Structures are given as C-alpha cells and as structure tokens.
Amino acid sequence: MRRTIIHAGFWLLGILALTGCKNNSESNGNDSKPASVSENKQEKGLKDYYSDYFPMGVAVAPNSFEGESKELILEHFNSITPENVMKMGVIHPEPDRYNWEPADKIANFAREHNMKMRGHALVWHQQTGPWIFEAEDGGKVSKEVLLQRMKSHIDSVVKRYKGTIYAWDVVNEAIADDSTQFLRKSDWYTIAGEDFIIKAFEYAREADPEAKLYYNDYNAIIPEKRDRIYKLLKMLVDRNVPIDGVGIQGHWSIYGPSEEELRKAIDMYSSLGLDVQITELDVSLYPWEKEQRELKPGESDEFTPELEQKQIEKYDMFFEVFRDYKDVLTGVTFWNISDRNTWLDRYPVAGRKNYPLLFDENFEPKKAYWEVVEFEKEDD
Ligand code: GLA
C-alpha cells in the first residue's frame, strides 16, 4: 500500500507537458492495428450498465478522438476529463498567453457528443508554469499578487468552459506527503498560506456559480492521509467555503485499498455533506513505490493469470462498493483509456509495462470488465 507519497513522476510529466513535447500519455497509442473495436462492438457499453448509478468517465488527450480510441470512448463512456491540457502549465504557459486549442478540442468533443466533462485542474503544485510565483525582481511574488494572478487564471479558464464543464478539480493535492505535516509546503502555500485554497474555491464559484467544485487528492483512502484530507475538508465546510465534493483519485493496485478502508473513507467524506467522485481510477499490478527507478535486471512485467485474477477481484470489490454508495458517488473516471497506453507504463518505473485498466492493449474488454458489468444477478 502507498504510505509515503511523492509523485516524482508527475514532475517529469509536467516538464514534458510544459515543453510542449508529446509525452506518451498524450498518445492514444493507435499505432498498431489490432482487431477493430467496431467488429467486436457490444450491445451495451460500461456507461449503459451503470446508467442507474453514476456517469462513467475517462481521461483523454486531444488525439484520443481518432479511430478506434474514439469508438471505444463513445461506446463505453459518458464523461471525459482532459488528462493534461487544462493544467495551468499547458493552458496558461505565460502571464499573457493562454493555449486554448487543445482544451477546446476536448470541450468541443464533449459538446458534440453530449458528454459530461470534468475540468482538471485549476490549482496544483505541479505542471504549473513557474512564472506565476515569480516577481519582476526574480524573487517570489507577494501573497496579494499571487492571489490576483490566481483569480485571473480561474476567471478566464472557468468562464470559457461554462456550460460545458459541470465539475472542476479546483485544488489538487494540497495535503503534504509527510504524514507529520498538514498542508504541502508548495509555493502556493508558502506564499499565500491556506488562503490559496479558500480563495481558489471562492474565485471558481464566482466565475461559474453552476459548476460543482471539488478538492482532489491521492492516497485518499489510506487512514493517515484520509484523516488529514478530512480535516481540510471540514475546515472548508465549517467556514462556508464553496466546495461541493471530494475527488478520490483512485490510483490503486491489486494490493489495496481494502473494502473496509474504502467504505470508511467514503463514509467520512460524505458525512460532511460532500459529493464523492472517483476521479482517476486505475488498478496497478505492482506495489506502490514513490521513487522513480530503472527496471531491475530480470524484473518481470508479465501479466500472469495470478495477477489477472487478483486484479479481477479488486475491480469486482471496488465496483460493488461504488454501487452501494450510488447516492453519494456522483462519478467514476478511469485514468487513461486502455492498457495499450497508461501513465503507469512510465511511472514509477519507465519501461515496465502495466495493465491497470478494463480494456486490453487491443481495446478489447478484459475479464475484469465483465466482472464489473455483470453485477445485476449478484446484486439481486
Ligand atoms: C495526478 C494528477 C493527474 C495526473 C496523474 C498522473 O493524479 O491529478 O492530473 O498527472 O497524477 O497522470
């Protein structure tokens, strides 16, 4: 299980995104030619099995809307989240320059196909251009200037997608990795204190009073971090900060979380009157490691039947719990489309293949998929 927590890999992803390089996570991996999705088209997609429960979402890149990956998205999902292109470093790379095109492409797709769209993410310590924290003299900006810049960013981005984006991850990952600390000592926090969180929600509410506003974080099920996230959320709710929900990222594995931990976390968060969403679901085959490292000689990345079975059991349990909580769970979003291409192929071990999703490298539903959708008989 993930105990200590640094997403070192995110920084790498951030640099790639900021330099405009296409990282692999921006590719739909449509390079090889497996059996066509349409040849194997099912009568119902994931979203249809879950139409009485919650929307089914997927993280996408602008080039996901081509060929087979487009077909798969339309067949199985009714909600999309931009994986990278709405992060501040990509959409607002310089003080007076916004890069709307990639994000517009995703928003247009959502409108054209009548899909829900989540916005991700307004304020984060990673994949954020350094300019936002810099003063003209090369030092750090004042709190006042930082909040002004944040307001202007939130205003421009949220207003542009008003009516299309129904929910925003307003603040991402503000809790410290060090379990003895509360808030992460990011530049946001060091300059503006906890007000950066409060103001981000206030500015987002002003920019679009209709949008649902979320706090989003990882390891949100692990008791020690769950308690710190709960403390933050309670503080926001008690102060009448305009927050509607909490995003549990859901970067999980065949090793955890347990059913008990998952139920307990959803109970705690929803007891605050907040909606809960699973915003970045994948089920890794490997135990959590925080540091990036090279593949060890002889290290296997084979998807063995044993690992497959463990993954099926986890997916089965997770979705059974999700269905039980359909009154508070307002969405489940997978982080990437299929095992053909996942950020977990690169993090924490570049070149170690992972198979964390419900669709295989040929875009075919895996056994875990059937376990997730064939629940009607069991639940009766
Ligand atoms: C975090 C972020 C996501 C993404 C993933 C890795 O969970 O919220 O935007 O960067 O890391 O892909």
Could you name the key traits of this structure?
single chain; eight-stranded parallel barrel; TIM Barrel; alpha/beta; 14% strand; disordered N terminus; binds alpha-D-galactopyranose; globular; 380 residues
Query: Mean pLDDT, rounded to whole units?
Result: 90
CATH topology: TIM Barrel
Fourth-tier CATH superfamily name: Glycosidases
Q: Helix- and strand-based class?
A: alpha/beta
Low-confidence stretches: 1-38
**What strand line-up does the widest sheet have?**
1-2-3-4-5-6-8-9
Bound molecules: alpha-D-galactopyranose
Question: Secondary-structure map with pairings?
Answer:
Blueprint (H helix, E strand, L loop, with lengths): L7 H11 L27 H4 L6 E5 L6 H10 L2 E4 L5 H4 L9 H12 L3 E8 L19 H18 L4 E8 L14 H6 L2 H13 L4 E6 L5 H16 L6 E4 L2 E3 L5 H12 L4 E10 L20 H20 L4 E6 L32 H7 L2 H4 L1
Parallel strand pairs: 1-2, 1-9, 2-3, 3-4, 4-5, 5-6, 6-8, 7-8, 8-9
Helix pairs in contact: 6-8, 9-10, 11-12
The protein binds alpha-D-galactopyranose (GLA).
Descriptive account of the structure:
This protein is of the alpha/beta class. The chain has one domain (51-288, 306-379): Glycosidases (TIM Barrel, Alpha-Beta Barrel). It is 36% helix and 14% strand. Helix 9 (223-238) runs parallel beside helix 10 and helix 11 (305-324) runs parallel beside helix 12. The protein is globular. Bound molecules: alpha-D-galactopyranose.
